[in-house]
Amino acid sequence: xxxxxxxxxxxxxxxxxxxxxxxxxxxxxxxxxxxxxxxxxxxxxxxxxxxxxxxxxxxxxxxxxxxxxxxxxxxxxxxxxxxxxxxxxxxxxxxxxxxxxxxxxxxxxxxxxxxxxxxxxxxxxxxxxxxxxxxxxxxxxxxxxxxxxxxxxxxxxxxxxxx
Length: 163
Known about the structure:
alpha/beta; Rossmann fold; 10% strand
């Protein structure tokens, strides 16, 4: 049994070797991640309407750069809040990321729309006061998310007429 972060000595000896194998594999997988269907078009339409955008993610800055590299259209979103930003005290499901993103956009969280696929992210955005749209992660259904979210089967269904 491992308690409070105490690792057996054989794991401590193997830890650097495990990381040396795990990290390149994880980076390779992340680089292959595809954008959600409709995401690029949604960003284009929001930018054309001059809607300020931010990326708020629990992932660290380095991981985000790796994830975004294959999607140059996301580079146009300059406001980013990462899980390892010093202003973030708690990650999702705490609202910190969304509150900080709204602050950087110079708007109140209640004026923000958040797009999420994770349960923790949906809870965090609701706790911040955002309107939350969920495109569910694979294997999850409506009952897995808070009832206050707006449900989308694709980002292309986003009701932009309600902006």
